[in-house]
Amino acid sequence: MLPSHSTTRILIVEDDEDDFMIIEACIKDIPDKAFLIDWCYDYTDAMQRISERRYDIYFVDYLLGEKTGLELLQEAIAIGCEEPMVLLTGIGNREIDIQAMTIGALDFLVKSEINTEKLERSIRYALERSAYIKALRVNERKFRNIFERSKDAVFLLDEDLVFRDVNNATCELFKYGKEELLHFSLYDLFARKEAVGSLKEKLLHGGEGEELEVDLLTRNRERRNCILSISRQVNSNGEAYLQGIIHDITNLKRIERATFQIEKLRSTATLLRTLAHEVRNPLTNINLSVEQLKPELNSEDANIYLDIIARNCGRIGSLISELLDLSRPAEISLQKTDLQDIINSTLAAASDRIALKNIRLDLAYPGQPAFVMADREKLKIAFLNILINAVEAVPAQSGVITISILEELSNFRVFINDNGGGIPEENISRIFEPYFTSKTNGFGLGLAATWNILQSHRAGIDVNSQLGEGTSFMLTFEQAGSR
Question: Which domains does the chain have, with CATH numbers?
Answer without folding.
Answer: 7-147 (3.40.50.2300), 150-248 (3.30.450.20), 253-327 (1.10.287.130), 335-478 (3.30.565.10)
